[in-house]
Design goal:
By secondary structure, this protein is of the alpha+beta class. The protein contains three helices and four strands; from the N terminus they run αβββααβ.
């Protein structure tokens, strides 16, 4: 939940929109932002509804990707450090063109097969390092 709240606040701060503004874009025009935190890195993918008269996209798909970016975990940005997850999220958002963020309809965050980030529900502070699916 922490990383989701951080995403909402960061997008809102960069675009001048509040978290409530996410729900005001129409389903026909709004962009859908997805984050994936995996064992090799983090990724952002943003899709938007595909209009039938748009020759730049695949007309057989209801949605088209309009932005994507990724980064790899490194020794300076290890996958098992909570700060890496927040840093990756902020970097990926800052690399996204503001007009795309301003038209955000919703945000989704996922991790690789049972990845988790344990937090204290009262303070929203991370209590343990992220655990990936391959943790022993």
């Amino acid at each position: 939940m922490f990383i989701w709240i951080l995403a909402i606040l960061t997008v809102g701060r960069l675009t001048g929109n509040s978290a409530m503004a996410l729900s005001t874009a129409s389903a026909e025009t709004g962009n859908y932002i997805g984050f994936d935190f995996g064992t090799s890195g983090a990724r952002i993918s943003i899709i938007t509804p595909n209009s039938n008269d748009d020759s730049s996209g695949d007309n057989n798909s209801r949605y088209k990707e309009i932005h994507s970016s990724s980064l790899k975990w490194t020794t300076a940005l290890p996958y098992d450090a909570p700060q890496s997850w927040t840093s990756a999220l902020k970097t990926l958002i800052k690399e996204t063109p503001p007009p795309i963020l301003q038209n955000a309809r919703s945000i989704c965050i996922s991790g690789t097969s049972a990845s988790c980030l344990a937090m204290n529900k009262k303070t929203l502070r991370v209590t343990r390092q992220p655990r990936m699916y391959d943790y022993d």
